[in-house]
Amino acid sequence: MRTSPPSSKRPRRNAWAPDVMASAKKSIAFAIFALIGLALPGGAVGQDAEAEDSIELIDPHVFRACADPRNLPFSNEAGEGFENKIAELFARKLGKSVAYTFYPGATGFIRNTLNAHRCDVVLGIAQGDDIVQPTSPYYRTSYVAAYRADGPLKGLDSLSDPRLKTARIGIVAGTPPATSLAANGLLGQIKSYALVVDTRFDSSTREMMDDLDHGEIDVALLWGPIAGYYALKAKTATTVVPLLKEQDSPPMVYRIVMGVRHSDQNWKRSLNKLISENQNEIQAILRSYGVPLLNENDQPISP
Question: What is the mean pLDDT of residues 165-175?
Fold first, then answer.
């Protein structure tokens, strides 16, 4: 693996070969050409900068993303997830085509994709995970409570709500809301769903939201982007509320970044620029999938 980007600069020959007038003339001509290049867009210096950026990538003409092949709303092989749409947006801005390296989003994902130099960017990872080098955050969201809009839990916004003592609660095992359920003495009310599954064959979060829609559970506690997406598809109106009032619990709110290899500094800067310049389009994509977006003050971000 590369530990630093190789330089695109090469050693220059001595411009003035002794006693050779032809070499002097060539050097003068080269100097004039270089000055012209500096003054023009796409000149020698601009090309060097592009080379330094693209040399970190597998193919400088392709936006190559690492993705799960069957993990909606994030990504799938058909390009139907919001991370697929953001990849298409960025590729279009860069004048590139899009390609993917697909691998199930479980143990070994980073090792077998990004760090194996099979793709150049992971499009969604929680800030603070040092397995990758993070870009700037491009959205902020949280774990949520999802429940039927006309059901007995209408208005619920905290796991300390006394109505939960008689509710049927869906929870993904080992996720942050489980700690709050334990603190509130609610473990006896839960239906547990698997944390780690092979997304090619199973989806515990889709199963949970289906159970909510069919009335088999009263509330689903899960990651906001997943709940928001399936709430849009539910047959019954479903409310999705960020869990922002939990005390003495693990964090419920996370900033989401893109991840690149630790050596890819220029590529990270390019992605940061895209994130900064295209926030409105990024947020529009996320909203269309029902992602609950929060600002730094934990307030919903309105269109």
Answer: 96
